[in-house]
Every structure is written in structure tokens, then in C-alpha cells.
Amino acid sequence: MTQFLQSLADRCEKRARYNRIVSEIESMPLDVALDLDIYRGDAHRIARATVYGG
């Protein structure tokens, strides 16, 4: 049971990080995004790669 709860907590933490990264990228001013060579439409792909790997 402890293993299950720890796994659930880890998944919730990762999902929260994913959502935070997507939100930050999507709300980033366009000039900053361009300076960082980030296309805001790729926010979900970038967040997935950052949090879950790959």
C-alpha cells in the first residue's frame, strides 16, 4: 500500500510540473520565446520531454 501511495504522489507531482511548464511556456511573451527559440505551440511537447523524458 505504501508503494502505491508513493507512486501516486510521484505521478501527481510530475503532472503538476508538466502543467506548470505548459502554462509558463504558453504565457511567455513572444519576444522572450523567440529569443529562446521556443515555439509556444510546442509547449506540450517540451513539457512532456522535460518531465517524462524522451
Q: What structural keywords apply?
A:
54 residues, mainly alpha
Strand and helix map with partners:
Blueprint: H1 2-27, H2 30-35, H3 43-52
Helix pairs in contact: 1-3
Structure description:
The protein is an all-alpha fold and 54 residues long. The chain has one domain. Helices cover 78% and strands 0% of the residues. The protein is built from three helices and no strands. It has helices at residues 2-27, 30-35, 43-52. Helix 1 (2-27) runs antiparallel to helix 3. The radius of gyration is 14 Å and the shape is elongated. The termini are far apart.
Summed up:
78% of the residues lie in helices and 0% in strands. The protein is mainly alpha-helical and 54 residues long.
Derived structural class: mainly alpha
Morphology: elongated
Through-space gap between termini: 30 Å
* Number of helices, where a helix is a run of at least 4 consecutive DSSP H or I residues: 3
Integer count of domains? 1
Number of strands: 0
Which consecutive residue ranges, at least 5 long each, have pLDDT under 50?
A: none
Instruction: Provide the residue-averaged pLDDT.
Output: 96
Main beta sheet: strand number and arrangement? none
Q: Please give the share of residues in helix.
A: over 70%
| Strand portion | under 5%
Radius of gyration: 14 Å
> What is the ordering of alpha helices and beta strands?
HHH
